[in-house]
Amino acid sequence: MRPTRPSMQELIRQRRRAGFVGRSDERAAFRQNLDLPPEDERHRFLFHVHGQAGVGKTFLVRELEQLAREKGALTAYVDERVGSVPEAMAAISREFAGQGQKFKELERLLAAHRERRHEAETAALVDPEPEGPSAGGSAIARAGLVGLGLVPGVGAFTGVLDADQLARGADRVRAGLSARFRNQEDVQLVLSPERVLTPVLLTELSDAASDLPWIVLFFDTYERTGPFLDGWLHDVMTSDRYGTLPGHVVVVTAGRRPFDTARWGACSDLMTDLPLGPFTEEEARGLLASKGVVDRPVVEEVLRLTGGLPVLVSTLAEARPVDPDDVGDPSASAVERFLKWEQDPVRQAVALVCALPRWLDADVFRAVVDCADEEVDALLTWLRGMPFVSERGEKAQYHDVVRGPMLRLQRLRSPRGWAERHARLAETFERWRVEAETDLASDELWVDEGWREVRLTESYHLLCAKPRVALPVVLRDTVDACGEGDVVARQWAQALVQAGEDAGAEAIGAWGRDVLEAIERGGVLEALGVLLARGGFDTRGQAVACQLRGVELGGAGHHARALIEFDRALALDPGLAAAYHGRGYARAQEGDYAAAVADLSRADELAPGKATTLMLRGEYQRLLGDYEASVRDLDQAIGIHGTRAFAWASRGAAKHSLGELDAAAADLDRALELDPEYVWAWVRRARVRRSRRDHARRLSDLDRAVALSPDSPWLYCERGDALTASRRFEEAIADFDRAIELDDEYASAYASRGACRATMGHHGEALTDLDRSLELAPDYGWALCQRAMLHLQLGHGDSALADLDRAKQQQPLDARVLAWRGRALDAVERFEEARTELSRALELSPDYAMAYGYRGALLLKQGLLAEALADTAHFLALVASQPMNPMDVIRMEAPVRGLLDQLVELVERLRHLPGADATALDPVLAQLTTAREMPWPQSVE
Predict the structure, then answer these.
(1) How many CA atoms lie within 13 A of 866 on its CB side?
(2) Which of 236, 722, 741, 937 has the greatest CB tally within 10 Å of its CB?
(3) Within 10 Å of residue 161's Cβ, how many Cβ atoms?
């Protein structure tokens, strides 16, 4: 096996470390700390390095990292390349993997987090849509993503929303995500990723710590990452919110500012503060001497120019000036002096021109440096070894303290040359961007991190080359960046700030600062408001900004205001498909599914063939009851993107409603093949099994759903209903109790528990539950019907009729409501009205078994024997051939058996009358006797 040769980065690090001078006290304190066991009171768990730009914070952090590795530590280095806590954890995981320590479970969850974030909008769009006993009706609240913190950066905006609205909206989103996502873990990966990821990180750190003396985590450029990392890091280190951190972990942070004493003040005995200032004269002279710079006039000039700032001292030392004649021109800056003292004109030119890009790799180097191919490696290696160049993964980056003066020098020396060089770089990145676009659909560009990086760098160079021309284009891009959330929007704003500083264009920098401040105040919603008010966009740009504001407002649960923004967008640009899509979503959240379908249809006309549009329209059409249209849309969506479990499950639900049980089961089977942990699909398949009277497998599916999402009250209601249908009443009550424990304002759970208790004969408790359900949801039709039936059992006919009058107002064409109202009218002896109502129920639903049973009993009371016999025969045939609600079956047992007893008695009397046709009556009597003696169904739905 060939020996592994060191990489360029490793060689550069070795050289730099060999020349490291100074900071002996800081290094000694850190090294001694690793010689102390964690139990020693002198041991410190946290080091904070801080000081102005250029004092060598990153150099020191990298030196401390090497010291830690010499002690056998596993280390991770995180800097400003991360934009969130999950990204920081991903960086830690990558660093550890590079040292042979893979955090497999954390990597799996991080991948799931990224995937689930992209799925969140679709997941939140669809109601869990419970039916029958678990129907929530108006009790199911509208969406409120902000209430859960799902929408990034709109925390400040939540103040304008009603707290109750947010709470209800949060419940709605939890329900939608619980139904559509794999499991509760996936829901939390969207809503609170730190809550899922951090315990796993801590567990894997503990596992790794058992075989390692130390684990050291380094967080550099903390002035940029601290705003989102500091609170999390404090919780991880000082509380057990996420679990326990191994005692062998040491954390090092480095930034320009001291630690926040309001947060960390009580931890002074656990941390070491390492403030860094410029080198002392002794340290600066020592570094210069190590590079052979000992001539007194030269040393004095270096000290004067640099003020002891380590990055500048190191930079000038690399030039190794030895000629006292070079000393002069007291106005010269340290950077200019470095360029003067660098004897090789090629290297001098390379150092200067390579300051232009924001970052360097071999490709960018070739684009910016005009040299022969065979010279590239040597020059790039030399440049990456300079003290002012730091490694950022596979890329290199100039230190701001050096890069800024180099840029100013070039811009002031030759403004035209400055513009031309940046224009060439912009053209290079434009070419790379166009190449990247060949493999991406138009709606995938902004989602792709690689494309965004190239586009952002292109934009920076355009701003430096032609600020006035480029600014409107980049501001328009900033609008699209806002559509990707705070992290991406902040990147574009920071590029504006940097371009403004580097190009000396104050107006550009002011734009960037204003957008950054807006993001801090109110997230991308606020930033879009600033851009829209002052951006001077064309009509299309204004429309897109309004459309994205609508998306943010809708995500905040403020759908009425979202609709206003979408209307504005469409008034500006009637051809903006995304605005129709967004308005359709907002209208659906307001319950106007018909209008939502119309908007999605227009979106499909303008941008045909989008699987998401077709899936949502298909789902909304299913909710409207247009199952054929739903299936057509979902067929198309599956044809375009056949691996989305959402589409298969929705089509399965639509086919179930069409009575196509085999096809529905096949679709739901496919959904669960694609996503075995898709909770909503497990429930929908359980309902298909209910229709097939496959009670055992129905419960098996619901058991699986509950196991996947054990904190979903809806699922306990679903399973409770199934247990009630199987007459396993005590287990059903336990599930309803659990649902109420999870959500004590869940109207469906109270209604279902009340109905179950009624079947058990616990009438007082049942009535209490149904009353509570209707307090929470006064227009809950199913609960009204259940309470009415209970009133009938208790002999309270007037109360039953009052409930059913209210239910009929809500659902005037519901055959079930009309049949139960007919039963109530019968109870209060309004027989003709009762007969009319039951007949109307059968017109609406000709196969409604219970309506035949009720009407048969009524006809018998009215002395209409032939009609009573006919209705009874229909009832018996339907009970034997189709599912019925279990509570209906149980409650009909007494009246139907009473009906059969009366019919048998009447037919026997008729047989014995003079002139009776016994031959005709005997078969009727035999049928009635057989029906009366048959056991009553134990589990019929």
Answers:
(1) 1
(2) 722
(3) 18
Calpha distance 725→734 (Å, rounded):
15
Contact 496, 474 (CB under 8 A): yes
Q: Residue 73's pLDDT is what?
A: 94
The answer to whether the CB of 339 falls within 8 A of the CB of 352 is yes
Q: How many residues does the chain have?
A: 941
Digit-coded pLDDT (tens) for 631-664: 999 999 999 989 999 999 999 999 999 999 999 9
CA 526, 529, 535, 540 dihedral sign is positive
**Contact, 577 vs 608, CB < 8 A?**
no
Of 399, 354, 494, 502, give the one whose Cα is nearest residue 57.
Answer: 399
Residues 797, 810 contacting (CB under 8 angstroms): no
How is residue 489 written in tokens?
């929007």
Share of the chain above pLDDT 90, in %: 46
Which helix (H) or strand (E) is 314 found in, with range?
helix 310-319
Please, are residues 153 and 525 in contact by the beta-carbon 8 Å criterion? yes
**Dist CA 716 CA 705 (whole Å):** 9
Listed in sequence order, the residues at least 6 apart from 703 whose beta carbon sits closer than 8 Å to its beta carbon are: 719
Q: Could you give the CA distance from residue 755 to residue 769 in angstroms, rounded to a whole number? A: 8
The 3-state DSSP class for residue 312 equals helix
| d(C-alpha 113, C-alpha 31), whole Å | 37
848-863: average pLDDT: 83
pLDDT tens, position by position, 150-179: 333 333 233 333 333 333 444 444 455 554
Contact 850, 888 (CB under 8 A): yes
Which pairing describes strands 389-392 and 395-398: parallel, antiparallel, or unpaired? antiparallel
| Residue 286, strand partner residues | none
Give the three-state DSSP class for 182. coil
User: In 3D, which of 730, 716, 661, 654 has the Cα closest to residue 690?
Assistant: 661
Whether the CB-CB separation of 524 and 518 falls below 8 Å is answered with no
Q: What does each C-alpha distance from 840 to 139, 300, 813, 844, 891 come to in angstroms?
A: 28, 105, 9, 6, 22
Q: What is the pLDDT of residue 857?
A: 81
CA 834 to centroid of chain Cα atoms: 52
